[in-house]
Amino acid sequence: MGSTSEAAAVDKRVDFANYFCTYGFLYHQKEMLCDRVRMDAYFNAVFQNKHHFVDKTVLDVGAGSGILAIWSAQAGAKKVYAVEATKMAEHARQLVEANNLHNVVEVIEGSVEDVDLPEKVDVIISEWMGYFLLRESMFDSVICARDRWLKPNGVMYPSHARMWMAPIRSGLVDQQMKDYEESVDDWDCFINETKCYYGVDMSVLTKPYTEEQRKYYLETSIWRNLHPNQIIGTTVVIKEIDCLKATVNDIRTVHASFSSSITAENSRLCGFAGWFDVHFRGSNTNPAQQEIELTTTPSEDYGTHWGQQVFLLHPPPRVQQGDDLIVNFSMCRSKENHRLMEIDLSYEMKQSGKLLPPVKNKIFIE
Asked: Which of 88, 121, 139, 300 is the most exposed, fewest CB within 10 Å of its CB?
């Protein structure tokens, strides 16, 4: 039997293969660097709050291409440690050299949990947010860095985060059901052809195949940039995070019970959308001079690469303006992969003062 340390090493290699390796490709970095909402928010947060950076020491967690480390140096930091777990660190090092900042920015290839810095830092900057904020669980690494390396009066960039939800209407609910039904029909044809041409009856696999397809098409959330008019009810904050104080246990699960009133006339409740925003406020003792917000709310003109996570309902009920929804939401990490999420979502609807039976859904963020 292998030792605990050996098992941990295997887990780390698997995690790298499943997660970190994606960020080692320039095409993936380019997608994020082309997100103007993302880029403008971080750029403005740094350069409109130079007092947090001038002559300060900065740690960039998950530095990627190194853009945040470079901005920190350009804003006046005396030393920036850019920690990146993938081979993207080599590209970041090249960018730092090309921008003549190698005397300020030190790129370190490795995970922030393992590296050793020679000093504490005044600022931790990181773009750690995943789909619906917490997918990918990268904030764990930021918390680790904060607890190890941030000075008592240091600041976090971003400093605060919120998760939002709202009821929506969308043609996606019909499309996903259609795709699911076509997939099941195709399996039936496959069963018949395999038995006819090759003499093997594979019908014993029909149930697991159907369950697999149901999870994929009907129980897995979908990424979309929604239009604001697809929101059909009041929006609600379901989680608030103070990045200076939050612990891993605080974000390991998210539980929320909330109410939302339908604002659209005669619509279908096709599901719920989830999104997030983050804020650059500094701290109570060291506030930002100019607070900056980065939001991924549904927008007609300012979509982001995060978009929104759409949790569809099958079948979608009809709703009227003034109907009230009472929603229970629970999100936890997948047992198979801690960077993915499992969601239990149930709701009750009050129509014309009458409370209808509750509806429960299991949904995955993969």
From this structure: 300
